[in-house]
Structure formats: structure tokens, C-alpha cells
Write a structure and sequence with these properties.
Elements (H helix, E strand, L loop, with lengths): L5 E3 L1 H9 L5 E6 L4 H16 L5 E6 L4 H6 L7 E6 L2 E7 L4 H12 L1
Parallel strand pairs: 1-3, 2-3
Antiparallel strand pairs: 2-4, 4-5
Length: about 110
């Protein structure tokens, strides 16, 4: 079963993230961010690998200042792992596939 990454905005944040029935990995990115382009395949891979127990969303930082401020995103790419309104994990900057998968594994198993 494949799962795709859902693109969301500030307006959809509560419904798509806070009210989701499983943990949500939020990927904060920007169109002008070179490293973000490198992270996209990794984000898609995580969405597919963990589709049974994780929802993956991406939100562009510039048009969505509310979520950026709420989750203290200081640089992109950035990841936040949430379960309801509880922040489980947080990273800033480019991370390796191994690091992302181990972060997810530590919270999802």
C-alpha cells in the first residue's frame, strides 16, 4: 500500500495534523531551499515505508507563518513529529535517511 505526502496550509493544520488518528510527520520546506529538494525523496520514502502507522504532511514555510511560529521552525528543511498536539521529536536542517528512520522508529514502535 503506498501513501503519499499530503501538502497542507495553516488553514488545514488542525484538521490534518492535530486531529489525525495517528502520529504525523510534518516536513517544513521552502521553494528556494536547495537542501529541501534533497530531502523530498526521503520524505516520500518515509510516507511509503510507514504508511500504516504514520501520516506525512508537508507545509511550505513562507505562505504559512502560523505553523512555522507555533513549532519554532528556524530553518528549512525541518521536521516535527506530532501525536495530537504533543511534539514527539524535532529536527532542523538536512538529515540522513538513517537518522530520519531511526527517529521515526524510536517513536512508532
Amino acid at each position: 500500500m503506498s501513501s503519499s505526502v499530503v501538502t497542507i496550509t495553516d488553514a488545514e493544520f488542525e484538521t490534518e495534523v492535530l486531529k489525525a488518528n495517528k502520529p504525523v510527520l510534518i516536513y517544513f520546506w521552502a521553494s528556494w531551499c536547495g537542501p529541501c529538494q534533497l530531502m523530498s525523496p526521503l520524505v516520500n520514502s518515509a510516507a511509503t515505508t510507514y504508511s500504516d502507522r504514520l501520516k506525512v504532511v508537508k507545509i511550505e514555510v513562507d505562505p504559512n507563518p502560523v505553523a512555522v511560529k507555533e513549532y519554532k521552525v528556524e530553518g528549512v528543511p525541518a521536521f516535527r513529529l506530532l501525536q495530537g498536539d504533543k511534539l514527539l521529536a524535532s529536527t532542523e536542517g538536512v538529515i540522513s535517511k538513517d537518522k530520519l528512520l531511526s527517529l521515526l522508529d524510536s517513536h512508532l514502535n
